[in-house]
Predict the structure.
Amino acid sequence: MKTITPLILLLFWAAPYLVFGQNIDQSRLLADMRTLSSDSMEGRAPMTEGGRMAREYIRERFESIGLGSQFPGYRQEFVLDAAKGAEGLGVNILGFIPGSASAEIILLLAHYDHLGKKGEAIYNGADDNASGTAALLEMAAYFSENLPRHSFLFVATDAEEKGLVGARALLRDFPFPLEEVKAVVNMDMISRSDDRTLYAVGTRFYPQFRPFLEAAAGRSSIRLVLGNDGGAGQKDWSKASDHGPFHERNIPFIYFGVDDHKDYHQPTDTFENIQPDFYVAACELILDTLLGMDQEMASE
């Protein structure tokens, strides 16, 4: 997904959970993540049985939540290129909640694919990216029960590990005019950080999101760093995951993620090695940011 980088730019130290509303269902979130990163899903590589099981799980959860979709069976299919290591059909899973006050769209992304198996070793991809996918399901559940002002499009993308292929396919076959997309929020690796640091990438290009991030950070128990988007002395993660193709089209984005760790793209990226307290706090911070964006941007 990206390379490791030192802490940079703005550090927002958070207050304890005194004001911060706890809206994430921790048990449901962790259960989804455990299932998606289990050995039975064999690393969720595109065009494998494990990948099929993962997307069926996501589809069933979208259906049980009550999301609509612009695609039959929630499935957006696209062709994979053998030159990129997989040949056949990839599948994005799309769910939709119409806005109560605005037709403009907040697009929430997380890729569900990972590296699959290599020999007998299973690359479970718990942090990368069962973490973002389970968070996507939890955000969808929250907004289905607390209807947003904006329309929300929830997309679990396939084949990110093959070169952001699912995100590019989504752009080619986007179900709405692209000018209606107010923000893209991508979650990719958000469940572990030894120094309790979550990064938010994109405010160098799209400073309109800074107030919402700063406000959410001030209510969180973890540290938020704004940066890693190519400023002086920084790494550049602005095209490192599925937000990249949207940024190339000048569609505003925020990307939430953590530094690479010793288990990145290793068989040891397992559910047992995540940090649940950090993960739940990161999801709360992201949801808090989304709530601010949804309320304030819809009234502009």
About this structure: Residues 276-297 form the longest helix (22 residues). Confidence is low (pLDDT under 50) at residues 3-20. Residues 105 and 181 are 5 Å apart (CA to CA).
